[in-house]
Design goal:
Elements lengths: L2 H18 L9 E6 L7 H13 L9 E6 L7 H10 L4 E5 L2 H10 L5 E5 L19 E5 L6 H11 L5 E6 L6 H15 L2 E6 L3 H13 L4 E4 L3 H5 L1 H10 L4 E3 L2 H5 L4 E5 L1 H16 L15 E6 H7 L5 H6 L2 E3 L1
Parallel strand pairs: 1-2, 1-3, 3-4, 4-5, 6-7, 6-8, 8-9, 9-10, 11-12
Antiparallel strand pairs: 10-11
Length: 327
């Protein structure tokens, strides 16, 4: 062996020595973060997740690593993204952005712990056996966004009592969509509203659906909860503003970004709790022993600046009921 080759071999061994021979340097845990959403519009929830993680002593880049995988609203990408995380041997998978991410993660592994974010009842969705004792390798949180659709429609009616024709934007590729529409139609019949329903599960359908709203001359729009809409949040808000169409949303981010009004669970708190669960699992807790978390805090947000631009007078009762008024 040439001297140069010998030195290269010795040098390589020396680099690997602390990880192999000594056996004292343990590799840091790797979190696989799988989301149906996009990184640009998930900054606030990511901060909340890392806050929860830090509460259990873990900081990205210091004593834990995170591998991010984003589907950007294209749910069909999730199975391959989940399989990739499994192949990399991650310690735990965070599967957020609705049931689609959770299902992809559960189909990819039955052994790696999973902390999911569900939009509806995870027992009905067969993600866990029970909320109090999930069993298996998965636990997480539910946002109950689908169950809250009738409440949003009722608040929209309080805001616009003379509106008798409401457009509903839904994502047919999102599993809870069927339950969302069923609940909305039942609520609409109760209060005497006509719903014009428009599907939008991709960009072509979304653009067509938004234009159809104008053609049908709806008085207002209700955007159902779906990760795809979150990834296109600014586009939807800009369209409704340009066409002076009052719209109701499910997360505070919509109202904060210029949407008229939103009502839904405080999603940042759920992501923070997910971070806590991930830290506990890394420290040895079993996901099957951690109960599925349900939302306890909700945000009702009104953007008065947007209301003024639309020429709407918000009833004083709604303003007093709001958790936050953006002026």
């Amino acid at each position: 062996m040439r001297r140069r080759d010998f030195l290269l071999v010795v040098g390589s061994a020396a680099v690997q020595w602390p990880l192999t021979a000594h056996g004292q340097q343990q590799p840091i845990p790797i979190i696989g973060f799988l989301s149906s959403r996009s990184p640009d519009e998930s900054k606030r929830v990511l901060l909340a997740f890392h806050k929860g993680l830090s509460e259990t002593g873990f900081v990205e880049g210091k004593n834990v690593a995170v591998e991010y995988r984003w589907a950007l609203g294209e749910y069909e990408k999730l199975p391959a993204l989940a399989a990739d995380l499994v192949s990399r041997g991650v310690t735990v998978i965070v599967a957020v952005g609705g049931d689609v991410s959770a299902k992809a993660a559960e189909q990819a592994t039955s052994t790696i712990p999973i902390v999911f974010g569900s939009a509806t009842d995870p027992v009905k969705g067969k993600l866990v056996r029970s909320l109090s004792k999930p069993e298996g390798n998965a636990t997480g949180f539910t946002l109950l966004t689908s169950e809250l659709e009738p409440k949003r429609l009722g608040l929209l009616h309080d805001l616009l009592p003379k509106a008798d024709r409401v457009g509903v934007l839904y994502d047919p590729n999102f599993p809870p969509a069927v339950d969302q529409l069923t609940a909305l139609e039942k609520a609409a019949n109760t209060i005497g509203l006509r719903l014009d329903v428009f599907k939008a599960g991709n960009d072509v359908d979304l653009n067509a659906g938004l234009q159809s709203l104008l053609a049908h001359r709806v008085n207002a729009l209700l955007v159902t909860g779906a990760p795809y809409f979150d990834t296109r949040r600014r586009l939807i808000i800009e369209f409704t503003a340009a066409n002076k169409l009052p719209a109701f949303y499910h997360f505070r981010d919509y109202a904060a970004d210029g949407g008229l009004i939103s009502y839904g669970p405080r999603i940042t708190e759920s992501y923070r709790q997910a971070g806590v669960y991930v830290g506990r699992i890394i420290n040895g807790a079993k996901p099957g022993d951690l109960p599925v978390l349900q939302p306890t805090s909700f945000d009702f947000v009104i953007n008065l600046k947007t209301a003024n631009a639309l020429g709407l007078a918000i009833p004083p009762g709604l303003i007093s009921f709001a958790d936050e008024v953006i002026e």
